């Protein structure tokens, strides 16, 4: 009778832990984290998400996400629901020299997020995480119920392998704030700081490992070298003791993230209070496109008190002598330990995440998410994730959301899932649909949880007047904020609102601010049409008067009191010289325009003036004009009046009798005497200048009496 040998439980268990470690196949809470109403959960992928959140407060009670994936076993999920007991017996297996298996559990414990203000948000969360991974494992060791017939030879070659199992608890604090908010551009950033308590960690890595069993000799020959390390103590039952003890190690981790939102319709999300101050509608999403970038799980668990042992596997021994039911016990009992040192610290599965969210409208979105591992594949005792790409269409509202993530995951392949958020309940899977629709599945994930969400108020504006309903005195009728959201009244029904109507109780046109037009001068023409509203006038002159009746309105008439012709702008031209009287210095005597309408003094006139002036007689040795010369003075005045704009010099001359100084004084006195006489008779003083020349300018000889008589004279000369 053939017997199953106990190699799988002893030697095979060692093989199961010879893994490439550092890989989980998927992100937790697939689809739910992209939801704008995921609240405190959103810090898992990007701590910046909680700034400007759609929730005032979010309290997570409990949530769990479990992920499984492999390329060895394929089963139909529908068959599993029908008869779960036979699922794995009837499942297809795909053993190879390079099989993959991964399991991840992520428990979100009591956690809370607070939106402290429009710019600042804070979250405190608790989280338990566990990674179990197998990679590049020879799947032949798992066939046939996990064992081999001891009467058959077998050979298994693993070559170089790396592996780990890790579990830890997190207590984290996240802070996020708005960094930039100008018109259509919005940026927010955030960071999480996490205190880590290691629960347990086992890792192994080796070189050139193989197993060769000879059924005739019942001996197994093993080759290679194996490092095995553990965190904390492992008891005889293979369990981790002192789960939260100081021996297991502690650490600090961090997440960093930034989010950019493009808000082309940013003005639509600004509302007003009743007092006119602005308020942002925080209850709705404002972006058309949202882009997020984050790095998560930066850090490591240190201060581990554990052992890292190197074993020499190069030996041949009978399976009858193979002892040990626990991995570490089996290694110690059956192989030579070459060295022993402190176990290595565990490095967190640092990853880079990029997220792009497109808003089709206020309810429907399409999300593209990518996750990339930032840790080396063959790093010892180091966590990591499998790279993946995910497209998630979703319907999203305050109390209800549906999403259907479609993923391509490294080493797992295509997955299609569905999720639901209904008030406090959230549940879903990133693979449930592909598992049900496909013939078989090699991966499955599920998550569910309960929370207490308290949403931001969605500011309603029923009448679209920009004022929120609760601040709007007339929420059903649009109106300005100056009137508390109510339309302005129009008491007199003249089409001019009372706020703009200077006469709210009397109808009037808009052009006069709602008041009737006045007729100030009572001429029957309204002021709006009256060009002279303060003076009564005639309709044909647009309400302006024509005082002199010359057919030209006073406002256009240069001589409104004297009739005149239209050509002369209502002024007369008495002397007909082409210069109106108003501008004519000689309105009664024709004269050229260039001489201001006055006649010009001719040579003949000049001669006549001097002929008269020379006959002016004075008392001997005095400046007194004799009476018989008055008639001559009158003639001179008449001539001067004919040329009112002409200016003249009145010049006095003497003979040479007497001293020159006395003659000079006498000539000046006589010139002034003539000038004064002319002024007294009405000739303008500014037209006359008196000059005395004494005996300087004789016109005849002073040696004769006749000559001296001619030299005693007065001349009146035109100033040119």
From TrEMBL:
It comes from the Bacteria. GO terms for molecular function: calcium ion binding. Signal peptide: none annotated. It is found in: Cell outer membrane. Keywords: Cell outer membrane, Membrane, Signal. InterPro entries: Bact_OuterMem_StrucFunc, EF_Hand_1_Ca_BS, OMP_bac, OmpA-like, OmpA-like_sf, Thrombospondin_3-like_rpt, TSP_type-3_rpt. GO terms for cellular component: cell outer membrane. Residues 605-720 form the OmpA-like domain. CDD domains: OmpA_C-like (cd07185). Its main location: membrane. GO terms for biological process: cell adhesion. This is Thrombospondin type 3 repeat-containing protein. It comes from Flagellimonas zhangzhouensis.
